[in-house]
Every structure is written in structure tokens, then in C-alpha cells.
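#random but structural
TW: two for the price of one
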Amino acid sequence: MINGALNSSPRYPASGHVQRCEARFKSYDPRSDTYLGYDGHRHTCNL
């Protein structure tokens, strides 16, 4: 049962990646690893 709980936890990108994306994109959301582009759509942060 414990393993199932651990496996179901959400996964987040590595913290260095998150820090770079947050520094570059003010609309960055680490839960989805996306930012809001000028086109009005969310895009994956590839930094």
C-alpha cells in the first residue's frame, strides 16, 4: 500500500530546471511545466 501511495505522487521537473523556467517566464507553472506564451497558449518549458 505504501508503494502505491509513493508511485501516485505527482512528479515535478528537477529544481534547476524549475528555477531557470521561473526566472525566464513569469507565467511558468511548475505543476504542468508550462508557461503562457504571447500567443495565449501554454507551452512546455524546454530550458
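TW: number two ↓
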Amino acid sequence: MVSSFFWLSRLTPSSDVNCDGQPPESKVPMSIDETRSQSTMVDSSLDQPMEAPKKKRIMNVVVQPEFITVILLILAFIGGSIISPYFLDLDFLLNYTSLFIEVGIMALGMTFIIISANIDLSVASTLALVGAVAGVLFFDLSMPMGITIVLAFLLSAALGSFNGLLITRMKLPALAVTLATLALYRGAAQVLVGDDSRPKLAWSRDIVFPDWFVGIHRVYIPGTSIPLPLVLFVILAIVLGILLHKTTFGRWVYAIGTNEEAARYAGVPTQRVKLAIFTMMGLLSGLAGLIMVSRLSVARYDHARGWELDVITAVVLGGTDIYGGRGTIFGTVAAFLLIIFLRTGMGVANVKAESQLAVIGTLLIVAILVSNLTKRIRT
């Protein structure tokens, strides 16, 4: 039986032969053209997976807020050059940028604040209060200018720390705290100097800040000269960029902004980090206040009124997520320059200050919308 079955199985057509005794169609040898066509299909299928990641990488770059900001910056420069030939003058751009350098300095600190999912609305009021105190110390109390500057920086740190302590120790929301200190610090500045200034307009022309402190001093390089405040801004941008992007402290700031509770469980000293960045914000605002007093040669309570909007716009327009967890110093610097170019163009076109403020406000709304849109595209 077994042997019979064995011989019958040998007589059964194999799977390699059909009922007509011919090999199946899939086994028929292909022609040369068919072989080439099949090879081309295989090659194209191999290329597709390689092209897809490349296209994805390009799309990821294009939808980055920083990339969009740089494109807008280039367009603003081109548009400004068409409106006025001054845009092509390097000295004009350097001088005009130095007129708003206080915004850029405060925006650097605000980048840390917003990345950590916080906000500081008191920056411009801190600027005004520090400037007013410096004026009172020097003119009313006859303090030496060097000691006045040291005390002004100590006050700046104290004002920033006050915000930070209310937020970290009292567990109060940053928006409410800094909205209150916005009014508190501005009111204190007005109480100190009143509606007048330091030096007072009625005083003798001999009663002024020392020569080494006032005016926009310049750093001379071959072919041109750069305003000293602009040089200081560049140095701060580099130092704070390294601090944010290359240090453990910077990673802690990102972690807090992404998920503060998870960061705390991971061992991040969240309260100390937040206190540190608010103190740093106070110091940078105080520095901006001293620069403004130096540039204008006068201290007033209404200095930088409304500049909170410019500062926050520069940060958000530069790609920092208003909800925290993302942002770069490079983006903030690019957005700051964009705002300067826009203000310069509007100034050359005789656009009123109120209209310029409306444009900046609109720009902030657009920046938030674009940030949300690009976030959805990336995810």
C-alpha cells in the first residue's frame, strides 16, 4: 500500500506544472523589456522611502516659526528699502536699532519667562522705577554715579525677586502678580519724581548726569562704529543663548514649561529655577532702565510706557510658545529686528504712534495664530 501510494504521488502533476503540462505563467521567463520594467519599479519603490524623510525634514524646517520670522525680516528689509533709501545705510540702521535696544534686552529675559510657561507684565514698569530711583539717588541725595548704578541693580534684582517670591512661595499666578506690580512699580516711580523729571527742567544746565554716563557711546571698528548698547545686547544674546541652550539650567527651564509637575518629580528644583529667572528678568529690566536714562539724559516715571507689548511680541513672534516649553534666543533676536524694521518703516512713512501700536498688537495676534498652526502641522 505504501509503495503504491508512493508511485501514485509521483504520477500526480507537480505544483510546478499545470493541467496542460506547461509551467505556470508566473514561472515563464520574462522578456528583457519586462525585466527592465520590473527593475525600474523596484528602484522607484526604494527611492520613495529615501525621498519621504528628506521632504519631511524640509517641511519641518519651513514650518519652524524662526524660519518664518527670518523670511518676514528679509521681506521687511526689502520693503523698507523701497520706501526709503535709508534702509541701505548701515549707520542709520545701527543708530535706529539702538533707540529700541531696551526692548531687545528685556525680550531676552522674557524668553526664559515664557518658555517656563509664565509671563511678566511688569518689565516696562520696572525699567521706569529703576530709572526714577537712579535719578533721585544721584540728584536728590547726591550719591556718586557709581554707587547709584550699583544700588539700581540691587533694586532691579529685588523687584524681580519680589515677583518670583509671590509666584513660587505664595503660589499666585504670574499673570495676576505681574499685572499688579505693573501698576505698583509705575505708581512708585511717579511718586518719586512726580510729573517732572530728574534732572528737573527748572534746574540749571550744569546739574546733569556725568558725561561718561550720558549719551550713546560707540565702539569703533574699521569702516563704521557700533553703538555701545547694541554691542552689549549682542553679548547678552550670546551669553543667554548659551545659558538657555547649552546648560542644565536651560534644560530645566524647558522642562518646567513642558510639564512642571513631571519636572518636579524628575528632581528639577522648579521653585528655585522660577525665582532665578524672575530675578534675572528684573536685572535685565533694570539694565534697560539705566540705558534709557543714559540715552535720554533724563529719568521720568513714564519711560517705556506700553513697551510690555513690544517685548512679549518679540518673544512670541520669534517662535517661543506662549504656553511654554519651546523657544530660542535666535528667534527672539530675529523678531526684535523685525519689529525694529517695521517701526522704522512706519516712522519713515509718518505713521502715527497709535497706529504703530495697533500694528504691533495685530502682529502679536498673528504670531500666536501662526504658532498654533505650525504646532499642529508638526504634530
